[in-house]
Amino acid sequence: MKLILLSILLGLIIPLFVPVFNGGSQFYVLEVSSTFPFEINGISYSPGNYYLTYRGIVNITFFNLYYQSNTSRLHLIGINFNGTFLNSSSEILGILKIYSRSNFTSVIVNTSEIFYTRISSLYDREFYVTVNAKHGSPISSGWYASGELLTISLGDTYQNGSIRYVISHVFVNGTQKTSFSVNSPLVVNVTYLVQYLVNFSKPTYAYINDSLEIMSSQWLSNNTQLAIPKYINLTRDTRIFTTGNFTGVVYISKPIIINDTQIFQYYVNVKEPIIAKINGNYTNLTSNWYNAGTQIYIPQYFPLINDYRITIYGNLTGMFTVESPLIINDRENVQYYLQFPFSLQISLSNGTSYYGTNIWINNGTYAVIYSQIRYINNVTRAVVIQQVFNSPNFGKLNYILQYFVTSNLPLPVSINGTNTTLTNGWFNRSTVFYVYPVYYVNSTERIVILYINYRNVTLLSPLSFNVYYIREYLVNIEGYYSHSAILDEKFWEPYGSIVQVPLQYKYEGIYFESNSTTNQYYIFAPINITIYYEPIDITTSVYAPVLAGLPIEAFVITVVIIIILTLVLLAFNRSKVNK
Predict the structure, then answer these.
(1) How many whole angstroms from its chain centre is CA 524?
(2) Which pLDDT does position 323 carry in this prediction?
(3) pLDDT band of 322, cuts 50, 70, 90
(4) Which runs of E-coded beta strand occur in 271-410?
(5) Number of H-type helices and E-type strands within the chain
(6) What is the pTM of this model?
(7) DSSP reduced 3-state for 571
(8) Across residues 364-388, what is the average pLDDT?
């Protein structure tokens, strides 16, 4: 302990007094520290810190490796020179040369130019890892730094020609693992799965360990069972026929080459033998296995007169290629032809249905055309009446043509003599429309047509009414004096107009005045107005002239309002028509 304290004290004091003069000579201090033995100018030093006085060239040697045992060692990883790690190309003041051999590294220092020099070594611990991997591994036996993480992945393969070895297990000191840290000496044992290349000239159906697969060239594990029967039944009516250099069963123990040809075959079930052309030659078509791609032609039909024909009737006719199992159940039948001006939904007596403009139907089967609506376009449609066919119709069909009629406003109209309100809808061809100039909704409401593009028209094509009208309401004004009626007027006013009631009124030579403060009414619905009057003393009242029971001012205002509304509506009509 005293020696250590003395060394530390010298390390702190000596730099304060360098360079040192001794009898007129200048001294230079060299501090060397190492945790393992080293040499200075060929003289061995034990581990520790040393403070030496040198002036000139000094050779300091550190040993690269220090073995603690056969499986544990310390490895020199660097040299620190005055705070800088050195390498072979370092160019630092005082360093003349750095060179390394297999077991040591030397630094030649010239202390003449530096008063105080510090050199220290840095070592790292390593452990020996023994790897037993006969056929290959990502790591091999050797020394590895403490704490280093190593990985050997399962499934890594190492190929030797047509044989390969797949890593299946990794044991580290007897424990199975694939990633591990080097914290002590280790023994790693790697085991393999041996596989052989089985080369198929083309994709081939085969049984691998009794499991049917489509095989291409691939690696199979040792002792795998490979079976290729001459016939492989995929289903009851689909099979594969195999020819080539190998059929049978083999257990894989070496690389092999298989050059087989496989053909799909399908069973064609023919209910009744018929004449057919098979791959270009006419023959009797009977039930049998047929290769995929076999072409078969069965004549389809023979035309007759008056929209009849004879059909070879069944599930398959014409030219077809055998690409799947087939059931052929053909026979002759007579058919008749139906044709319509547009597509229809057709129901047959055999329970099937069809949609289209034409159809051939087996003789004895009748076609029912149920009531239906078919749109020719967005403004024309046909209403088809239910009908039945059991023979050619030669293009005839019973239906009613309808057109779409629109109106820009709900329009009171007579349709074939029946009053109704027209909006938008479908109507039969030849329907007659008549538009009333004035239409009374009821006794207190009416519609007055100001403009209409069609007043009396027969429907022969799609039609669009363009109408403008005003709605008027009945105004009933009643005036009373005591229990006697002295004013009773009824007249029609447009929606939104203003009616003024006379506050002064002359009846049978007597002037009356209303005690009401309201004499102006807005018309938004039929209205009944009741006013109560009292006689006027003309000697004390000012008389306001009246016209037709109304003050002149009220009459003028009402007339002006009606004229303005009429002009506005007429101007609006002209702008719409011009558009």
Answers:
(1) 56
(2) 94
(3) very high
(4) 274-278, 281-285, 288-291, 295-298, 301-303, 308-313, 318-321, 326-328, 331-348, 353-362, 367-369, 372-377, 380-384, 387-389, 399-407
(5) 2, 61
(6) 0.45
(7) helix
(8) 95
